[in-house]
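User: tokens in, sequence out, please.
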């Protein structure tokens, strides 16, 4: 059998294959009122299609741990019980299709309060459901973006608690994997990097101080997440800056710490913390960063980044560069990618009974 279709066991959870869906915001929830941040029919149909397509693990989009933790006013949230209850419909369906349901819990930090990408993605104010962003330091993400309010140590601890509360709700909603979002220049990633973290207290300066907030979040989530279920962490392995930024060496060093604190897999992406940087994108351009973590630590990794062809995904796994493949935009284009890959590589994925005729060529 193709390695891509081998099950992956983390703690006591077995994921049926190694074709996983990366978190991708849909910017489709209500921006305010009692239904703010609540999943509705669009979200159900979106995730259900990828489950019926044979995807082994689906990680729901960045789901905010607080209202000001959203990237846009239209993001999903999990800061109250009503939001969590509406997610149960999705997790139940995913499990019924043999897909493992996962969720990414997140805080946007200084990159919050922006419009939907198809509306330009610019910062929005209170008149457009916006708010004042928060950050480790009063350093704006880019020209035209507001200067964030610098978090106090008490406020940092409040956010740590919000992540724990979000994880507890995610468990109640039926999720079997929780991922802490530490990538793409959002709040946790902002603390990690010299580029965005100018603090001089216990949360800034040295590597140990800059990683403190991330590890406190991991510890708080791990404390409420069952021992038999896995915890993921998503990281930007590099800021793509020549100096004064987070680097691949930092990522390898940090990965070992995450392992010690109970993280079971590192979801390796790059970039997002500095505007205007040049990123040499090409198919699999982020895979070498995942491979370094896999080869230099004992922490399993998932690779992501312009991986579109089944043969390429298979090669990444057989070359021992990653333990799983996370697909993003390719799964937006083709919800049935896993089924097509199985046909080409001789693998096997779950096919709903209602679609049994499609599994036999005539």
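Assistant: Sequence out:
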């Amino acid at each position: 059998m193709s390695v891509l279709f081998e099950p992956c066991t983390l703690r006591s959870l077995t994921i049926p294959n190694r074709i996983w869906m990366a978190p991708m915001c849909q910017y489709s929830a209500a921006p305010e009122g009692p239904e703010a941040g609540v999943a509705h029919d669009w979200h159900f149909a979106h995730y259900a299609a990828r489950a019926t397509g044979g995807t082994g693990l689906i990680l729901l989009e960045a789901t905010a741990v607080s209202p000001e933790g959203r990237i846009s006013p239209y993001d999903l949230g999990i800061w109250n019980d009503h939001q969590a209850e509406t997610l149960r419909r999705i997790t139940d369906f995913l499990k019924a299709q043999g897909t493992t349901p996962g969720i990414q819990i997140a805080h946007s930090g200084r990159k919050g309060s922006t419009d939907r990408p198809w509306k330009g993605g610019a910062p929005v104010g209170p008149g457009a459901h916006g708010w004042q962003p928060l950050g480790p330091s009063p350093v704006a993400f880019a020209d035209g973006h507001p200067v964030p309010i610098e978090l106090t140590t008490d406020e940092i601890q409040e956010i740590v608690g919000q992540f724990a509360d979000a994880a507890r709700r995610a468990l109640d909603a039926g999720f079997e994997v929780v991922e802490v979002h530490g990538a793409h220049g959002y709040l946790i990633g902002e603390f990690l990097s010299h580029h965005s973290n100018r603090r001089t207290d216990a949360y800034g300066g040295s590597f140990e101080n800059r990683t403190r907030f991330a590890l406190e979040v991991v510890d708080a989530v791990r404390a409420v997440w069952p021992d038999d279920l896995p915890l993921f962490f998503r990281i930007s392995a590099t800021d793509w800056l020549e100096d004064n930024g987070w680097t691949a060496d930092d990522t390898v060093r940090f990965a070992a710490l995450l392992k010690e604190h109970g993280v079971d897999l590192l979801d390796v992406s790059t970039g997002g913390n500095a505007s205007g940087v040049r990123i040499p994108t090409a198919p699999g351009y982020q895979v070498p960063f995942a491979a370094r973590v896999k080869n230099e630590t004992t922490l399993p990794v998932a690779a992501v980044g312009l991986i579109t062809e089944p043969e390429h995904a298979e090669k990444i796994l057989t070359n021992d560069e990653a333990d799983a493949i996370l697909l993003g935009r390719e799964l937006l284009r083709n919800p049935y990618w896993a089924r097509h890959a199985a046909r080409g590589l001789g693998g096997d994925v779950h096919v709903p009974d209602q679609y049994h005729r499609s599994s036999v060529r005539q």
